[in-house]
Design a protein that fits this description.
By secondary structure, the chain is mainly beta. It has helices spanning about 1-25, 300-310, and strands spanning about 50-55, 75-80, 85-95, 105-110, 110-120, 130-135, 150-155, 165, 165-175, 180-185, 200, 205-210, 215-220, 225, 235, 245, 250, 255-260, 280-290.
């Protein structure tokens, strides 16, 4: 009996030691629990960390957190519960930023912008609204679509699918001297074949713009999945041959600005850019916005979605 008791005690000791080691191995220094990685990452901030040029978490203010740049104008904005912490709510409002140096490189090359939105399909006849625009700056922006990046919503389309969101993005480059550009959208053609439906009205949706300067491909993702039109991915000029647009290149001396919720026009601080009749202001919430100076891979975009969905 003593031998059996001794063996049992030793067994329990070993099991306890292994369990203790396993728990301690899942903790960071200081006692914080280390969660299992998601697709190889601990937090969203670990994804393409070296290429993250801008980040907005909207936790109580709308500052760009890496540079601590505060907006110059914040119209009809408030703060509500977001995907992680707080989010900014715009009630037909907009937010305008001064130049952020890291977003003003003459040769941006490629870029990815990720942002979470909660809004609605506002019905037939409603006006498109912009979510994020990287502009040429107030002294050079002569029209809403001269770029270099615009992410917007076709709020009233499609008429028969009021629970859907139509995501529409455009880009511009000045590599050849003048402006060249293109767009992509999750619409036109055969639904579920040419593009994917985004069932995202009145709930959080991750909206990602990606432009790959090496391949001249413009893509849109929603909730980690490619949703834009396959027929509009390749951006080019000319017909024979089709010449790829290449890198995102800004005019020399450009000092870019960022505007959220409104198209870059005279109503949002760009006096030289006329207000177009079709343009509206954003109604809804925006959270966890990130700007990268690279084309994130499909796997990186998927990981970013999973991590931010988990509040990480």
């Amino acid at each position: 009996m003593k031998r059996n008791s001794l063996n049992l005690s030793v067994t329990l000791f070993v099991v306890a030691a292994v369990f203790s080691f396993a728990i301690s191995g899942c903790k960071k220094k200081g006692g914080d629990v280390m969660l299992p990685p998601i697709d190889g990452y601990q937090t969203a901030g670990d994804v393409a960390k070296a290429n993250l040029m801008g980040y907005w978490n909207f936790d109580g203010n709308s500052n760009e957190t890496i540079s601590s740049t505060a907006p110059t104008t914040s119209s009809k904005s408030s703060y509500v519960t977001g995907v992680k912490g707080q989010a900014v709510r715009l009630d037909s409002g907009y937010i305008l930023y001064p130049t952020i140096a890291a977003l003003s490189a003459t040769n941006l090359g490629s870029a990815t912008v990720s942002v979470w939105i909660m809004t609605e399909n506002q019905g037939d006849g409603s006006k498109p609204t912009s979510v994020f625009a990287l502009t040429l700056g107030a002294t050079m922006q002569t029209d809403w679509n001269v770029g270099p990046i615009n992410m917007y919503l076709e709020n009233g389309r499609p008429k028969n699918y009021n629970d859907t969101l139509v995501l529409h993005s455009s880009m511009s480059t000045y590599g050849s001297g003048g402006r060249l550009g293109g767009d992509n959208i999750n619409d036109y053609g055969v639904r579920a074949t040419d593009f994917k439906t985004v069932l995202g009205a009145n709930k959080w949706v991750q909206y990602v713009f990606r432009y790959d300067g090496a391949g001249s491909f413009l893509d849109i993702f929603a909730n980690g999945e490619l949703v834009s039109n396959n027929n509009f991915r390749f951006k080019y000029f000319g017909d024979a041959p089709k010449v790829p647009l290449g890198n995102l290149i800004l005019p020399a001396g450009t000092q870019t600005q960022v505007v959220l919720g409104g198209f870059p026009n005279a109503s949002t601080g760009f006096a030289q850019s006329p207000v177009q009749a079709f343009q509206g202001l954003y109604r809804g919430d925006i959270d966890e916005m990130r700007f990268y100076n690279k084309s994130l891979t499909d796997a990186e975009i998927s990981a970013l979605y999973k991590l931010e969905s988990a509040g990480r």
